[in-house]
Write a structure and sequence with these properties.
This protein has 198 residues and is of the alpha+beta class. The chain has 3 helices and 7 strands. 30% of the residues lie in helices and 23% in strands.
Length: 198
């Protein structure tokens, strides 16, 4: 048995098939033209205005952190470079001719100038610029071990040391190399080491 056709359908000769009969109502059809309406454009602009500022802030923060990390790595390299150079030098001027202790009563150069420093304390208060934008400074101080702590000792007491058989005598020097950038992206990155007169 064939299915019944609803009464609302009629045959259209032009199209060659059945279609709904006109009911007197006008049908609304959507246009197949592509593009954006004015409302869609305004919505898109508002959405981009809300989304772009946080993305730009995040990008700028990431770029700044990346630059700071690179500058810190460079500063660490410059500090390590000078520290390695200092560690190759003699403990004291008197160590060069095997006449010490007692050690030198003053820290600093013994008439030499850089790059002809021959002992560790020649680098006391030495500063230079390893490359454009960076500054490097070195300090040297006599120290001694007191329990578990390193404490500063006066130059006079270190000059009075006659042997270095005990840890509480001033037979050590603390060397600190600090590097900073002129724009304060890196401020006083420091390396410290202790050298011994033993």
């Amino acid at each position: 048995m064939l299915p019944r056709l609803p009464e609302e359908l009629e045959y259209n000769n032009c199209r060659g098939g059945f279609e709904p009969a006109p009911t007197g109502k006008k049908m609304i059809t959507l246009s197949r033209k592509s593009g954006l309406t004015l409302i869609e454009m305004v919505a898109l602009i508002v959405l981009m205005g809300v989304a772009i500022p946080p993305l730009m802030t995040m990008w700028a923060d990431t770029a700044w952190r990346s630059g700071k990390a690179e500058s810190s790595a460079d500063a660490g390299f410059y500090a390590q470079e000078l520290m390695e150079e200092i560690k190759t030098k003699a403990y004291d001027e008197k160590k060069l001719d095997d006449s010490g202790p007692p050690w030198s009563s003053s820290l600093g150069t013994d008439g030499e100038s850089y790059p002809n420093f021959d002992d560790v304390d020649d680098y006391n208060n030495y500063s230079d610029a390893p490359t454009s934008g960076y500054a490097r400074q070195t300090t040297v101080a006599y120290i001694q071990l007191s329990g578990n702590d390193w404490i500063a000792c006066g130059v006079g007491s270190c000059a009075a040391v006659t042997d270095c058989s005990a840890c509480d005598q001033c037979c050590y020097k603390r060397v600190t190399v600090s590097v900073s950038r002129n724009d304060n992206v890196v401020s006083n990155l420091s390396l410290t080491t202790i050298v011994s007169g033993h």
